[in-house]
Amino acid sequence: MGAASEMLSEIKEVNLSYLLLAQSLLREDRAAGMFRMGLSDEIADVLANLSFAQTVKLATSSQLLCRFRFDDYAVLSSLADKGKSTARSHAHSAQASVEQPEETTD
């Protein structure tokens, strides 16, 4: 039961973070916030008009309120590969700099 309770707590934490981020982005720049969060105009209206108490209450749902928008395998795999190739290139340059002999000045 402890693992289930911990998972539910983590879902609530993610929900609250997601809702607060969405509200912040919508207040800063509504159109950009809607685009970044993948929100419709109607959902943006609801989120932007929630009081803090309503936001916290909504966040306590046991259902995750956000979802990944990786509906396209090609997009997801290219993003995943991009991160790997960047990490590899950083590792290779770090290794190359370590392998270079130090220059001495006499």
Global shape: flat
Radius of gyration, in Å, reads: 22 Å
- Mean pLDDT comes to 82
SS strand fraction: under 5%
**Terminus-to-terminus distance:** 69 Å
Helix content: over 70%
Which class best fits the helix and strand makeup? Answer: mainly alpha
Reported for the largest beta sheet, the result is: none
Kindly report the CATH topology: Flagellar transcriptional activator fold
CATH C-level name: Mainly Alpha
Given as residue ranges, the uncertain stretches (5+ residues, pLDDT < 50) are 95-106
* Overall CATH architecture: Orthogonal Bundle
Commentary on this structure:
With 106 residues, the protein is mainly alpha-helical. The chain has a single domain (2-78), classed as Orthogonal Bundle (Flagellar transcriptional activator fold). It is 74% helix and 0% strand. It has five helices and no strands. The protein has helices at 2-28, 30-37, 41-48, 52-59, 73-99. The longest helix has 27 residues, at 2-28. The protein is flat, with a radius of gyration of 22 Å. 6% of the residues are buried.
Task: Summarize the model shown.
With 106 residues, this protein is an all-alpha fold.
Question: Helix and strand layout, with pairings?
Answer:
Layout: H1 2-28, H2 30-37, H3 41-48, H4 52-59, H5 73-99
Helix pairs in contact: 1-2, 1-4
